[in-house]
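Notes to self after the Tuesday call (sharing in case useful).
The group wants a holo model before anyone commits to mutagenesis around the pocket. I volunteered. Ligand is zinc ion. Logging inputs and output together so the record is complete.
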Amino acid sequence: MLTIPLMLKSSFLFFLLLKTTVQLYLNIRNCKYVLKKRDRVPDKFNTKIGLQDHQKAQDYTVANLTTGRFFLLIDVALLLFWTLGGGIKYLDNYLFTFSYFSIQNIICHGVMLYLVFSFINMLLSLPEEIYSTFVIEEKFGFNRTTIKTFIIDHLKGIALMLIIGIPLLASLLWIMMKLGQFWWLYAWIFLTLVQLIMMWIYPVLIAPWFNKFSPMPDGAHKDEVIKLLNKTGFNYKGLFVMDASKRSNHGNAYFTGWGKNRRIVFFDTLLSTLEPQEVVAVLAHELGHFKYKHILKGMLMSIVLSLLGLYILGVVANAEWFYSAMNVTSFFNDGLSNGLSNGLLWPNHFYYLALITFSLIVPCYTFFITPIFAWHSRKNEFMADRFAAENADANMLISALIKMYKENASTLTPDPLYAKFYYSHPDALARVEFLESLGTRT
Ligand SMILES: [Zn+2]
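Result:
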């Protein structure tokens, strides 16, 4: 008979298998396509990008895809180990053997489990990070990270995880365990507020911890940027340059923070490659996103989705079948009474296990809406490009984009299906053709 735990377990395995198959299929498809297009620069770009740069981009793309494939399989193995393989269960039981994480203080125990779990995962993800930073990025000349920076970054990451993670998780578990059946609603309000506060303090308190932000120096770049900001009436609280070159040669520009902390940040790598008019065109594109409220709408969307997610978590956290299907607690195997006789209260005292398990398995299901979000994001990119063409020069955006493609060694010829599924931005050709059609109209 197909019981509910068996159904959940089968659906989890089914979706995990399907997701992995789709990921591998798209990855291999893209690899083949990119290699097939390696010997010739697409006509549209052959005056701007040389064969050597084109081949570098193709090789870089293939190198990333190949490593991605390898580590994808490791991630699947790890996910199975933590869940069905009983990894979380063993870790949980192990931590219970320390008397000071007593059942009297289950919140403390839950936080501890999360910290140890995150720390182990961080260690396990190190090989991939080291390989990608010091082998691939190095080989293609992008890496500027020294081993010292790499280690310090990770130590800072751990410190941040402790400073922010502990109080956040403790509060969340407290809300889950103490606030009754509508805890998911309170948790949602709490997490939304935390997100807003984080966005507010991130540019001033957190980002400077990892990078140096200096006011944009006077000069042609700044003059042109200010002209555009005045023309479009964009309200900002500072123009900054970030020392991105400390870690990598990839270039970018972005908005960050809100209210008094709203900033425009340029990577120093961007300013050193682009002409003032090109920087203006890139900024105009970003302003387009702002103008059409893409950032705000995206945030609202994620807030609504998180309510849905928390509601579902609220349902499964109360269901014994959820824990037994995912093999995350030994108390059910020995009979619930065993755990309860140890002083645990059902189900509240098990919520920390539901939280950790839920966050692990959800991506298996949500993966399949990736193409919808990607499609929507590409639509927004076209809108922002149109705004840029209206407020700056479409041809300048084209030349900036081509320079960025070249500098970042992004492929000009992704597999169409791969790009449809994952790409948050239109592919190079689609974007340039669109901008050209706008450029000739004005
Ligand atoms: Zn954009």
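Two things stood out.
The mean pLDDT is 88.
Residues 285, 289, 381, 384 surround zinc ion (CB under 6 Å).
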